[in-house]
């Protein structure tokens, strides 16, 4: 086994230019950090939040020339692809014994995958052979034919993990979570082999539902075996034709699928744009349904932290709108639960909004809890309704015991019920890592999107081919990151996404930042025209 | 680098576009632009209706929303039937503290007997932790996933397999990955709920045929062929699919696969076969209905199955040719947009496959027991048995009650009483939104480890309870 250079805490970051990593603190900085710390206080009035949080969210626009080049580059790729297609036989399987059938796949889609996506295909679906903790071990693979096929080399590479959703660092192979999960396998076996309503309920499920409700401070909760299914299989029972859904344009695929199945009318508002949302609601109520009847009910659907944008939803303003017009809120906290708020209770905790003002609290256990599954929490009547009508509760298999136990133990740690301050430590560590990493990136001069307290950090690289270049270069430097491009993002906005974790140490982040700085020059990633903070960033 | 080289091109390209285009192109574009402007203006007026600010405020003030959800009655069975299961799920199961013979859960093969599965899963936690913390695309592909996919493909003698983290989302994601709005799906009316949702998500036109009725199917195919003749242009673009289950979860019946395969070829349909129940239960080596009925597996375009029944883990998978299955890796919603299966559950499935391959006699044993149950359970006074003799899922229907609600109540009572007497059975639960509400039944599952005594014991309990209640 060829283990390339390890990423571990004793790697010294290169000390060039602005990388001051020593404990030096300027007095200016102390004042600044005091100011920002104040904002974390939970009891500040809503109005104050508006101005504060708007300024904390940043979406710097790309220079015009970059925009033009990005489009141009993309079209160039397509044209080369078309030429390629004319001359070279694709090395792909074809359908056999189905002569005379209508072709199964759309021809543009096929073209796109073969001649555009294939060029960067090696940047996704990379197999790992370790726990996705602060570091991970990649199984090395090579492609002998430009992405048509892959072969394993038999070697592995240990990388710093900036790609997994392990926000609170509960992806662990030892410790209380792993131990308890193992015990639960010994007691209950691997799976329950039935749906919740048909003898698929065990004591762990009941305990988890009670604990989840307590965690949020709401009346009741219900849990499901998969986060995706929590959206896709519950939204249809909550909505019906004649209901209006006001949905953020960046909402997750599972939400969109759930809405499609529900038959409700969907109106989309611009990402995190409260004014536009209000306008959509006002116009919709005023003009009613197409058939002239008034809407039955209006549900605003949004996410806590958006996984591709890194933005945090402007919850206090949205709660105001909801109250003003009598709408309901469905909040998907897949990426925010555990990862935001000083108690790890998600965006309601972050803003100090009463969780009871959110009609439907939804989230997944896949991320911060290092497990699998999803929950919905809210009022007793809501949860009772779901127990009676949820598709997943009635037909889909219930959560596996080990998976349930992992959530129980990690949630107890977050709540401090284990008798230690381990949970608080993790939450603080993540918050610190987030701020530090984002500020240092700004200093380096790359464009990042999103809120300064969001642990999801997208770094814009714009050009499609740069996504591949950055992911590959970072891999050679033992850093694993996620790239995202068209169709997951607009053509214009190819990006690299970093997901921070409480498991990361400062040294690890410093190492990553020094590499980003270095390749930022080489690959031309420093697009930002904002003034840079000349002072060293304190940790 | 790239920036400096390509920027002069932009201008020359722009120049070409503007000055060398023929006049009719410019004319066309101008008229398009006008059309767009016209549409925008029209859209703002909301179909001719225009309200002043004041009118709007008035309407908004008077609008009242319905409650978020309807109040559920406290006596609703979903809130009342809170049976809690304790301990491992095997031939026996502990329900509400009472040890019961298990004819309720879907662990047909009784893999609880093999401690190796648990051991391997525990080792997996030591190596990978519990969750995978990411979808397959983003570092959520663990080597055990690749191993399981390879093993499943080999086991089913197919080119490729794709593993999902949840059985419900497997078939519900696979169908809309292929079937689009302009396509037609022919489906059996007794298909399970996950398939129904997959069909809904595809938005294709659906034609349901009567349960396992090939005449009815052919009639509907002929009708479609006639319609196609009238509109050959549209027909040339319409893909056609046939979706059936190997053994139907909701009836326990087996599909007539040979006839289906003939119709598939005759009418150029693509056949999707869901083996939720039949995978790992029928056929000499547990390969499912294609093996049992000796149908060439290449005749079927896509097979989907669950890892939650015979395999006793959580998840699902699809197998088929490389050409078909690969597509799901970018188009299967539940595959792309959800965290991958927790490695310990993947490992459990691999260990189960080991047993499938090493000890194929377990399938024979299961089939034997299924047939024995079938023989004995025909003679209830008040209940009627349905389902294929080999099927591990069987249904007991009330002989004299047809009303759905009424029979539901009686069956639940029977199930509850049986559990008190040491036999776990369930009244199958369905939501009111089922396309064709299935007739209510007691759903019996067969466990490989049941002995002749167990079966006659179960028979006695059900007979006694059902006689006193129904
Ligand atoms: C907003 C949102 N909702 C739901 C999900 C699905 O969760 P799971 O991975 O647990 O299926 C995700 C996962 O990426 C998500 O980002």
Automatic annotation (TrEMBL), chain A:
Renumbered residue ranges of the record's region Disordered: 1-22
GO terms, molecular function: pyridoxal phosphate binding; serine C-palmitoyltransferase activity
Keyword entries, A-Z: Acyltransferase, Membrane, Pyridoxal phosphate, Transferase, Transmembrane, Transmembrane helix
Database matches in Pfam families: Aminotran_1_2 (PF00155)
Signal sequence, renumbered to the chain: none
Domain of life: Eukaryota
GO terms for biological process, alphabetical: ceramide biosynthetic process; sphingosine biosynthetic process
Entry annotated with the keyword rRNA processing: no
InterPro entries per record: Aminotrans_II_pyridoxalP_BS (IPR001917), Aminotransferase_I/II_large (IPR004839), AON_synthase_class-II (IPR050087), PyrdxlP-dep_Trfase (IPR015424), PyrdxlP-dep_Trfase_major (IPR015421), PyrdxlP-dep_Trfase_small (IPR015422)
Membrane spanning stretches: 64-83
Cofactor annotation: pyridoxal 5'-phosphate
PROSITE patterns named in the record: AA_TRANSFER_CLASS_2
Domain (Aminotransferase class I/classII large): residue spans on this chain: 158-516
Gene3D superfamilies documented for this protein: Aspartate Aminotransferase, domain 1, Type I PLP-dependent aspartate aminotransferase-like (Major domain)
GO cellular component, one term: serine palmitoyltransferase complex
Enzyme class, spelled out: transferase
Keyword Magnesium: no
Enzyme Commission code(s) on record: 2.3.1.50
Recorded catalytic activity of this chain's protein: L-serine + hexadecanoyl-CoA + H(+) = 3-oxosphinganine + CO2 + CoA
Similarity comment: family membership: Belongs to the class-II pyridoxal-phosphate-dependent aminotransferase family.
Name the UniProt record assigns to this protein: serine C-palmitoyltransferase
Native source organism of the sequence: Chironomus riparius
UniProtKB/TrEMBL annotation, chain B:
Protein name (Swiss-Prot/TrEMBL): Serine palmitoyltransferase 1
Pfam family name, one: Aminotran_1_2
GO cellular component, one term: membrane
Cited SUPFAM superfamilies: PLP-dependent transferases
Needed co-factor(s): pyridoxal 5'-phosphate
Residue ranges occupied by any Aminotransferase class I/classII large domain in the UniProt entry: 99-458
Keywords associated with the record: Acyltransferase, Lipid metabolism, Membrane, Pyridoxal phosphate, Sphingolipid metabolism, Transferase, Transmembrane, Transmembrane helix
Family membership noted in the UniProt record: Belongs to the class-II pyridoxal-phosphate-dependent aminotransferase family.
Broadest EC class assigned to this enzyme: transferase
């Amino acid at each position: 086994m060829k283990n390339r250079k390890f990423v571990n805490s004793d790697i010294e970051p290169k000390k060039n230019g602005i990388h001051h990593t020593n404990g030096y603190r300027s007095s200016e900085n102390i004042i600044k950090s005091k100011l920002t710390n104040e904002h974390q206080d939970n009891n500040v009035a809503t109005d104050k939040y508006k101005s504060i949080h708007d300024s904390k969210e940043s979406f710097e626009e790309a220079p015009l020339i970059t925009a033009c080049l990005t489009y141009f580059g993309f079209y160039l790729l397509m044209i080369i692809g078309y030429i390629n297609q004319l001359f070279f036989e694709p090395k792909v399987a074809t359908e056999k014994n189905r002569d005379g059938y209508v072709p199964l796949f759309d021809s543009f889609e096929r073209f796109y995958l073969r001649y555009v996506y294939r060029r960067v295909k090696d940047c996704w679906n990379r197999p790992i052979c370790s726990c996705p903790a602060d570091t991970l071990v990649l199984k090395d693979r090579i492609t002998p034919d430009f992405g048509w096929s892959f072969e394993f080399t038999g070697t592995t590479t240990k990388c710093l993990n900036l790609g997994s959703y392990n926000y609170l660092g509960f992806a662990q192979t030892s410790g209380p979570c792993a131990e308890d999960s193992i015990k639960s396998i010994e007691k209950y076996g691997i799976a329950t082999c039935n749906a919740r309503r048909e003898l698929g309920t065990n004591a762990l499920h009941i305990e988890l539902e009670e604990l989840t409700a307590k965690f949020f401070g709401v009346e009741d909760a219900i849990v499901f075996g998969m986060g995706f299914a929590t959206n896709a299989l519950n939204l249809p029972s909550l909505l019906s034709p004649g209901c209006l859904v006001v949905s953020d344009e960046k909402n997750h695929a599972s939400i969109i699928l759930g809405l499609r199945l529900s038959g409700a009318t969907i109106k989309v508002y611009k990402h995190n744009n409260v004014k536009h949302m209000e306008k959509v609601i006002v116009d919709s109520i005023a003009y009613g349904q197409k058939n002239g009847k008034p809407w039955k009910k209006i549900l605003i659907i949004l996410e806590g932290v958006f996984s591709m944008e890194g933005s945090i939803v402007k919850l206090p303003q949205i709660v105001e709108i909801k109250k003003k017009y009598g709408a309901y809120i469905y909040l998907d906290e897949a990426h925010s639960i555990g990862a935001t708020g000083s108690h790890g209770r998600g965006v309601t905790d972050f803003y100090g909004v009463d969780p009871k003002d959110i009609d439907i609290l939804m989230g997944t256990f896949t991320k911060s809890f290092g497990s699998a599954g999803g929950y919905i929490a809210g009022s007793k009547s809501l949860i009772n309704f779901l127990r009676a009508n949820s598709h997943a509760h009635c037909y889909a298999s219930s959560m596996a015991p080990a998976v349930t136990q992992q959530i129980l133990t990690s949630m107890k740690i977050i709540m401090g019920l284990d008798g230690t301050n381990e949970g608080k430590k993790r939450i603080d560590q993540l918050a610190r890592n987030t701020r530090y990493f984002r500020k240092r990136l700004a200093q380096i001069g790359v464009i990042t999107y999103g809120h300064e307290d969001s642990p999801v950090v997208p770094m814009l690289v714009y050009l499609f081919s740069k996504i591949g270049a950055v992911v590959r270069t970072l891999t050679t430097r033992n850093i694993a990151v996620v790239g995202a491009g068209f169709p997951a993002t607009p053509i214009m906005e190819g990006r690299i996404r970093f997901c921070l974790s409480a498991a990361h140490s400062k040294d690890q982040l410093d190492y990553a930042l020094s590499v980003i700085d270095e390749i930022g020059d080489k690959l031309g990633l420093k697009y930002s025209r904002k003034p840079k903070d000349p002072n060293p960033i304190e940790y | 680098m790239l920036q400096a080289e390509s920027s002069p091109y932009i201008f020359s390209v722009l120049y070409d576009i503007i000055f060398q285009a023929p006049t009719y192109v410019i004319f066309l574009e101008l008229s398009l632009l006008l059309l767009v402007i016209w549409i925008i203006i029209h859209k703002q007026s909301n179909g001719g209706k225009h309200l002043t600010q004041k009118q709007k405020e008035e309407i908004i003030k008077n609008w009242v929303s319905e409650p978020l959800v309807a109040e559920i009655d406290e006596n609703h069975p979903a809130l009342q039937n809170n049976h809690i299961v304790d301990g491992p799920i095997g031939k026996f199961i502990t329900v509400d503290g009472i040890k019961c013979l298990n004819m309720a859960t879907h662990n047909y093969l009784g893999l609880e007997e093999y401690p190796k599965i648990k051991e391997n899963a525990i080792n997996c936690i030591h190596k990978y932790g519990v969750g995978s913390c990411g979808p397959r695309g983003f570092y959520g592909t663990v080597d055990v996933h690749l191993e399981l996919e390879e093993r499943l493909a080999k086991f089913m003698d197919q080119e490729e397999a794709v593993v999902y983290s949840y059985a419900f989302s497997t078939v519900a994601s696979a169908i809309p990955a292929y079937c689009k709005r302009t396509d037609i799906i022919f489906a059996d009316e007794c298909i399970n709920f996950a398939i129904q949702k997959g069909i809904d998500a595809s938005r294709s036109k659906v034609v349901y045929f009567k349960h396992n009725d090939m005449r009815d199917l052919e009639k509907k195919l002929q009708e479609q062929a006639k319609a196609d003749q009238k509109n050959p242009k549209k027909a040339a673009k319409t893909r056609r699919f046939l979706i059936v289950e190997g053994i139907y979860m909701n009836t326990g019946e087996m599909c007539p696969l040979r006839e289906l395969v003939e119709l598939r070829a005759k009418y150029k349909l693509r056949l999707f076969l869901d083996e939720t129940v039949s995978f790992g239960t029928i056929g000499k080596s547990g390969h499912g209905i294609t093996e049992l009925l000796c149908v060439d597996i290449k005749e079927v375009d896509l097979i989907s199955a669950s890892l939650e029944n015979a395999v006793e883990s959580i998840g699902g998978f699809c197998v088929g040719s490389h050409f078909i299955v690969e597509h799901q890796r970018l188009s299967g919603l539940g595959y792309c947009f959800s965290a991958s299966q927790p490695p310990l559950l993947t490992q459990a499935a691999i260990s189960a496959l080991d047993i499938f391959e090493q000890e194929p006699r377990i399938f024979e044993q299961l089939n034997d027991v299924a047939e024995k149950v079938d023989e004995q359970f025909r003679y209830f006074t008040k209940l009627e048995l349905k389902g294929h003799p080999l099927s591990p899922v069987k249904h007991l229907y009330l002989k004299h009650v047809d009303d759905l609600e009424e029979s539901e109540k009686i069956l639940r009572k029977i199930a509850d009483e049986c559990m008190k007497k040491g036999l776990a059975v369930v009244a199958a639960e369905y939501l009111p939104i089922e396309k064709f509400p299935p007739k209510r039944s007691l759903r019996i599952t067969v466990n490989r480890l049941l002995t002749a005594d167990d079966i006659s014991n179960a028979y006695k309990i059900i007979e006694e309870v059902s006689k006193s209640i129904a």
